[in-house]
Amino acid sequence: MNQTQTTQISPNKSLAPNTVIEISNLRKSFGNQEVLKNLSLRLYKGENLVVLGKSGSGKSVLIKCIVGLLNPDGGNINVLGENVEELNTNDLGELRKKIGFLFQSGALYDSMTVKQNLEFPLRRVKRELTQREIDEKVKDVLENVGLSDSIDKMPSQLSGGMRKRISLARTIVVDPLIMLYDEPTTGLDPVTSDEISLLIERVQKKYKTSSIIITHDIECARMTANRVIMLKDGEVYKEGDLKLFEKSDDPLIKSFFK
User: Do the Cβ atoms of 49 and 83 come closer than 8 Å?
Assistant: First the structure.
């Protein structure tokens, strides 16, 4: 196998069986800086796909393109059977309701209690729910992240790790089909990072989500990954299961898996 591995995927209006995201030949530049270069990948139903890469390799730009926060310069992005770049504003909004985002900041509304933070997306996405059903869903997700006793607290009363867990609860409360994690353990101590990684794995199993996890945290990758893709200079450099990476003699890969 060559050190640099790229997969060419032909754009398709419909997805292959068990595929929830298909990206083909994606390109994105900012001025003269080419961040993504003919990048192709698939996310399969029910899997955790970890995307590794050094800073500037295009990881965060990739997931922002997936949800239409950035417009690519070329290529095709198909999410749940929809070509993202062809969607109008309303249809893109409907698609985003099926996708959960946990970005680095994990920002909560500081003026709202934990309960109100979780109720807010439910009222927007699941308008048919009664107050009793909303209360039950809020209680359920807080139990799943281990913070039932924080329901009436303000974000300012929570530690960084607790805020991250509440942000995850707010994301999964609307039952997303796809989860996108952007550096979910950044800024956390090792113990809390492991807790978040275990939660990601638990969310996958309980809610049957399909996830892309952007990270440079190898312990997070070890705890969550079903499959790994490494980016280098905006392209897929290596793809396979974790054991393939851990056994590699490639200097770049070894620099991650010390």
Answer: no
Give the separation between CA 81 and CA 40, rounded to whole angstroms.
16
Query: Over the stretch 33-91, which tens digit does the pLDDT of each residue have?
Result: 999 999 999 999 999 999 998 888 899 899 999 999 999 999 999 999 999 999 999 99
Helix (H, G, I), strand (E, B) or coil at 76: strand
> Beta strands 48-52 and 210-214: pairing type?
parallel
Q: Give CA separation, 182 vs 59, 105, 201, 232, 244, in Å.
A: 8, 9, 15, 17, 23
The CATH superfamily of 17-98+177-258 is P-loop containing nucleotide triphosphate hydrolases (3.40.50.300)
Give me 124's structure tokens. 């927007």
**Other C-beta atoms within 10 Å of 109: how many?**
12
Query: Would you say 41 and 210 are in contact if contact means Cβ atoms under 8 Å apart?
Result: no
Task: Tell me the pTM.
Answer: 0.89
- Provide the residue ranges of all domains of the chain, joining segments of one domain with +: 17-98+177-258, 108-175
pLDDT tens track for 162-209 = 999 999 999 999 999 999 999 999 888 999 999 999 999 999 999 999
- The alpha carbon dihedral of 215, 218, 222, 228 has a sign of positive
User: For residue 183, which of 10, 30, 57 has the smallest C-alpha distance?
Assistant: 57
Q: Quick one: pLDDT band at residue 5, thresholds 50, 70, 90?
A: very low
CA distance 216 to 54: 7
